[in-house]
Request: fold
Amino acid sequence: MREVALVGAGQTKFGDFPQKGIKELFAEAYAEMLSSVDKGLDPRVIDAAYVGTLGSGGFQLGQVAPLLTGHVGLTGIPSVRVENACASGGFAVFQAVLAVASGVHDVVLAAGVEKMRDLSGEKSRYWLGVSGDTEYERLAGMTFAGIYAMIAARYMEEYSVDRKYLSMVAVKNHANGVRNPKAQMRKAVALEKAMGAPDVAYPLNLYDCSPTSDGAAAVLVVAAERAHEFTDRPVYVLGFGAGSDYLAVHDRETITSFKASVEAAGRAYEMAGLGPEDVDLAEVHDCFTIAELIAYEDLGFAPRGGAPRLLEEGVTELGGQKPVNASGGLKAKGHPLGATGVSQVAEVFLQLRGQAGDRQVRDPKVGLTHNVGGSGGTATVFLLGRD
Amino acid sequence: MREVALVGAGQTKFGDFPQKGIKELFAEAYAEMLSSVDKGLDPRVIDAAYVGTLGSGGFQLGQVAPLLTGHVGLTGIPSVRVENACASGGFAVFQAVLAVASGVHDVVLAAGVEKMRDLSGEKSRYWLGVSGDTEYERLAGMTFAGIYAMIAARYMEEYSVDRKYLSMVAVKNHANGVRNPKAQMRKAVALEKAMGAPDVAYPLNLYDCSPTSDGAAAVLVVAAERAHEFTDRPVYVLGFGAGSDYLAVHDRETITSFKASVEAAGRAYEMAGLGPEDVDLAEVHDCFTIAELIAYEDLGFAPRGGAPRLLEEGVTELGGQKPVNASGGLKAKGHPLGATGVSQVAEVFLQLRGQAGDRQVRDPKVGLTHNVGGSGGTATVFLLGRD
Reply:
């Protein structure tokens, strides 16, 4: 396959924007991506576009990709919507990378968008519920917080883990969110307060859950051999992988590890010829705090049951050895489903180029992104590096 | 890019199957695809899967790809839903071809599924409406038949074309459908009857509209260098392309040609080093009869305004020089949105291998498929050939 690079990235602030529709959010992320390309970008060189989105405003739209690309004046090119629930954005990037790797396209836009904040609580639960198995989970009354609560309870039991470690993820990610001007929640939280928050689905409380969000993100994926037409500091795709599992958690071999993540990470590491020890920073899918603990283990940062120790030792804090979710993560940056996976790639792009401002990690060379669909039905992992 | 081949294809009968859900339909198409692989296929060699679907049963499901691939026991692999309305299936094949062309995957499943028949008329109109521009078309009361009626009226005016030619498409495709055991409508219709049917949206009448359908289709896309592990008579992807346009028809330069189709066809012809004159048979997107006339011109089979003459001369009939929609097309075979683009590829696969039974075209060497999203927001074109 042909080598692939990233030369631009942009995203909206994540949050609550009643005055903006998906077209406006998409256009804003696209414009920031355009202006991030150091040597400028004539949009006419864009060969294809992928847009990740789950419901894009209440499940009322089909063929959203040409709707959005047409809105910013991109017509004629292949424009494709990709949907894998909360991993829609990661898979949009995945398809863009494959399209460039194939040699068929040279310059491809990967974007994601979601608008969730103007839904009622009931509609919002429905929205998230469809990412799981409708027949055996959603229609039986299972909420998404409920599924992750089951996973957390099992994890705590299996490895004799205290609930405190869930809250430590929230504390860390909220502290990082304060430093990210694009984050939805820029508010530090003390461990005691996080631990004492009202339950959502035991053992998960309010501070264990990511918010619902409006937002969009966009990155520009190009053939590495052409990267220097756009910038002198490209970011390279060193490896990438995706995986899947049974959608309903009751069908799985285990619920304290996501097979989709393990497969995705394994493929990405193998392609890059790298291991977890080479990763300098990571953006992982912390839709619920337990998901970040499991991600540490699925990505090989810690052995099974070893995630709490990483938190205990501060390894994944912003100043630690391997910062995780320097952006604030889904927990504090926000989680507009289709935008999330693209935003993770945008964050690592900035970090590797030293453009991450107050949340800059010290001199990272290799970054990882990890995006999960729903409760682990699908996942993507990217390994990104610089010259 | 690496050469790509097809080695298996299957599909359900299209029609009205209240007793089958999307899982059953998908499994049935998948099983037929498996059994079509001459030298057998161990499903464990499948590297990735793409599933095209718009609503898959009433817009109540997210992350449908792993739901379906998990249902047939495929887990671990990348499993991705692709949605571009009525072109979702064509884009699923497009992504599978790119994935193999990239060298990242060797054996990829491309499938499509839709279940439309258990929706009420109102819900069904909604379903189709979301494929257009919701803000400016659907919510303003524009139906899908209405959009194509506008296009037909404009085409008839621009080229002084009689309504009769619309009906001739219906007559031809219904005649072909009689020969296809998988077709939803196996009923010949006389020109007089087709012309005298009740109006749906003038100038389109009942026989100008494809039906709503349940159904699924699946094809197996592999690296050409490995094709002979699976069969001694592979079908090769000679060229492929995709395109897009503004979603709302009022934004377009013209409505009597689809820019998305023209771009898709141009790319496919260029890649294959072939022209329209090399195409021995085609499956084109006749969601409404007018769409087939426009397809003749967008694909270069006829000059602008020249489509009626092809019909007049019988060129596109089953026994003609360039048979179009030997399967019956969307009009008679049926149109389960996400399945359609995959089913077109499956049909040409059978035709090129001489396995199309009563509807077999005489010794074709090159076949074309053409799949359109909604009213032309997106399109894919494949050129397929054999040794």
Chain A has a mean pLDDT of 95. DSSP finds twelve helices and eleven strands in chain A. The domain at 4-119+211-386 of chain A is CATH 3.40.47.10 (Peroxisomal Thiolase; Chain A, domain 1).
